[in-house]
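Proteins fold reproducibly. Next comes a concrete instance:

***
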Amino acid sequence: MLNSPLHLECMVRQSPVDPVYIFWYHDSRMINYDIDRGVNVTSDLPNKHSDLYIERASREHSGNYTCMPSNAFPANTVIHILNGENPAAMQHGHGRSLNMLSCPSIWILIPSLVMFINSNSN
């Protein structure tokens, strides 16, 4: 819902080495450092984990979000920011080896999303 928090998590699983970086993209724009647009990204690379947090999501935050670790396939989801009282925020996930788990927080109308990314070791 408009002006609600949006939280996306990305975790790299089954990777023999830590990622050097985890970049977040909104549509085709890398947003790791877009503090002026309300985006806050934190990464814990030894634990292969990154969080994207937007305190007050607006319609401009709708779109395709991609988590792109340096050593794994990217995963993405589409977020729709709705204006109104309807809690049915929509998400669509895509990507290789992507499992999505949606777990809404109490009365937050945009559910959290956890992306699990499996890397292939050849």
Q: What stands out?
A: Strands lie at 6-13, 22-26, 29-30, 39-44, 49-54, 63-69, 75-79, 91-95, 98-103, 112-118. The chain has no helices and ten strands. The chain has one domain: 6-118. Residues 3 and 56 are 4 Å apart (CA to CA).
